[in-house]
Specification:
It is a single chain. This protein is mainly alpha-helical. Helix content is about 65%, strand content about 5%. The chain is built from seven helices and three strands, in the order αβααββαααα. Strands 1-3-2 form a three-stranded antiparallel sheet. Helix 1 crosses helix 2 and helix 6 packs antiparallel against helix 7.
Length: about 170
């Protein structure tokens, strides 16, 4: 998910490591954790794969090296592939991945956005229809937690439905 978010942020503008970490924390903190120990090794791997390139800024005030990272055409293709894939993963990771994807929806075509929204809606509806959701535990705190979880899914379904309607209007 960190790769997806990093390549997504670099679609907007080239960034140095410090600014990239700031933006990851600001916009992605509800979905992923970003620290320098994860970001800089990721940046090296992305550069080695040709997904990003480094520009040296001699007048940089952030970082001794003045490295600025820019996404390449190969990086944009990889980002698009990661945006459209639907990996099998836990409910929590799927939710975080979707919100990261949603953050970058403006870089996709309307039909692609609609496909991702509809896929997420189906997953939420399926989760809500799960038989285990109907049985509340006897413990009042566990029951309250289950009810809260159910409310969160219902709210997400409502929000996704609204987003789908907005996206469908763009296609007409």
């Amino acid at each position: 998910m960190l790769e997806l978010a990093t390549l997504g942020l670099l679609q907007g503008e080239p960034l140095n490591g410090y600014r990239l970490k700031q933006q990851l924390e600001l916009f992605m903190s509800g979905c992923i954790s970003a620290n320098y120990g994860a970001i800089y090794p990721l940046m090296r791997r992305l550069e080695q794969k040709g997904l990003i390139c480094v520009i040296i800024d001699p007048e940089s005030k952030h970082g001794a090296s003045g490295k600025i990272y820019r996404i390449t055409a190969t990086g944009k293709a990889r980002w698009h592939q990661k945006m459209m894939e639907q990996p099998q993963e836990s409910w929590v990771h799927a939710r975080s991945r979707f919100m990261i994807k949603f953050f970058f929806f403006s870089y996709l075509e309307s039909a692609e956005r609609l496909k991702l929204l509809e896929n997420r809606l189906i997953k939420c509806q399926s989760r809500l229809a799960d038989k285990d959701m109907e049985e509340l535990p006897d413990d009042p705190y566990q029951a309250a937690a289950w009810q809260r979880f159910k409310l969160v899914i219902e709210t997400e379904i409502s929000w996704l439905s609204e987003q789908i309607l907005l996206e469908q209007k763009k296609l007409v």
